[in-house]
Task: inverse folding
């Protein structure tokens, strides 16, 4: 893979799609001044910038001030499109059906005993007692996944945007491979955490498929998209985009799949490429 300063750029860039954690954000979850300036300059030049992340809409405060123009972000690995100008209002939801989520829970309990689950709804997170607690979501309801998915309550009609599965002993990539083999015909499985934490969406739902829908609405082709990412949940997006960059800190599979490589997230790798795009004119 070639260094950033020698890597290819598309003939015309109309949209930049970037992951957040490990990509646009520094390790301390901040956005550098250089990156803020690059994002603003891209929008001023008429290039749309889409944040495409596994984060839920309620965790988008780290970048909400840096969305210009359209104001949209793709969250929950493609399961939700939100308007950050409107405080995270949901524009589009691609849910995981509850009955399918239950089938996935049953399957993973059988093939990977010890798995603990969390259920991400449009209204917030719910999780099992053995699931690592969310420090950013104090006060979340704690119960068995089957109860969270089946029993009546205030959230019974809320769409499930993501099911999360954590295993305390399996390796991250090993758990992902096992889950895809056992239940890959039921839902979409990916991961973005350094731990054995799987993110499970509706079948066919991914960052790439939702980004493709958003681009089609704007008459933008994949050849006009430059994408950035660092983890397996970015793979489909990076291979769909006409030009893609793996961060210097990226997972090995991402480094192999992207068409080019930039510097790490802590070295403003996204800004480095945006500046090159704008300098070319």
Result:
């Amino acid at each position: 893979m070639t260094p950033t300063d020698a890597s290819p750029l598309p003939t015309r860039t109309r949209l930049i799609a970037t992951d957040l954690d490990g990509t646009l954000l520094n390790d301390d979850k901040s956005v550098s001044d250089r990156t803020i300036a690059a994002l603003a300059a891209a929008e001023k030049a008429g290039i749309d910038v889409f944040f495409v992340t596994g984060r839920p809409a309620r965790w988008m405060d780290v970048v909400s001030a840096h969305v210009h123009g359209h104001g949209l972000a793709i969250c929950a690995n493609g399961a939700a499109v939100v308007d950050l100008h409107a405080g995270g209002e949901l524009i589009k939801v691609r849910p995981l059906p509850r009955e399918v989520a239950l089938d996935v829970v049953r399957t993973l309990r059988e093939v990977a005993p010890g798995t603990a689950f969390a259920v991400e709804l449009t209204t917030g997170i719910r999780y099992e007692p053995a699931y690592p607690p969310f420090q950013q979501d104090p006060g979340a309801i704690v119960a068995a996944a089957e109860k969270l998915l089946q029993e009546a309550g205030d959230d019974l009609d809320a769409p499930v945007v993501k099911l999360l599965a954590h295993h305390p002993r399996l390796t991250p990539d090993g758990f992902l491979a096992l889950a895809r083999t056992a239940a890959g015909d039921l839902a979409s499985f990916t991961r973005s955490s350094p731990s054995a934490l799987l993110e499970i969406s509706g079948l066919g739902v991914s960052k790439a498929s939702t980004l493709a829908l958003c681009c089609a609405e704007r008459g933008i082709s994949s050849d006009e998209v430059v994408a950035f990412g660092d983890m397996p949940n970015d793979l489909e997006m990076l291979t769909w985009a006409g030009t893609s960059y793996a961060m210097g800190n990226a997972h090995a599979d991402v480094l192999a799949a992207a068409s080019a490589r930039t510097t790490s997230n802590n070295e403003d790798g996204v800004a480095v490429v945006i500046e090159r795009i704008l300098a070319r004119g």
